[in-house]
Amino acid sequence: MQLLGLHHISLICSDMERTVKFYTEVLGLSLVEKTVNFDNPKIKHFYFGDEKGRPGTLVTFFEYPTLPPGYMGGGSVAHFAFGVENEAELLKWKEKLEVAGLEVMGPKDRKYFKSIYFKDPDGAIIEIATKGPGFGR
């Protein structure tokens, strides 16, 4: 028995239209599925990922427009990360995000990779990290 890796991550947004615009237009993800929360069909549940919606590329959002903003604490996610091939690609992303009006921190040297950080419209922290140099195993 073995876990294969991450399948998807799900977050909560307050405005699905704004979320769609950010994740498709700014980050270039494909909107691969529009559905509802199967536990509460009144709530939208949208999936973003690569063009085929492959597991491991998926970020999903539930829309809850009336919930208060979250805060960091036990049980919360600090951030999630997308990967890029190398530092040159990372710097291109930094420039693109700044042109889009986002505040970008980094690049930061994390010993095993380099990364930048920024926030989505609801304040979720997103990291973009290079593939290497890796963990040296």
Question: What do you see in this structure?
Answer:
The mean pLDDT is 96. This protein has a 4-stranded mixed beta sheet with strand order 1-4-3-2. It has a 4-stranded mixed beta sheet with strand order 5-8-7-6, covered by helices on one side. The longest helix is centred in the last third of the chain and has 13 residues, at 87-99. The protein has helices at 16-26, 87-99, and strands spanning 8-13, 30-37, 40-49, 58-63, 80-84, 105-109, 113-119, 125-133. 18% of the residues lie in helices and 41% in strands. The chain is globular. It folds into 2 domains: 1-66, 2,3-Dihydroxybiphenyl 1,2-Dioxygenase, domain 1 (Roll), CATH 3.10.180.10; 79-137, 2,3-Dihydroxybiphenyl 1,2-Dioxygenase, domain 1. The chain is built from 2 helices and 8 strands. The two termini are 23 Å apart. It is of the alpha/beta class and 137 residues long.
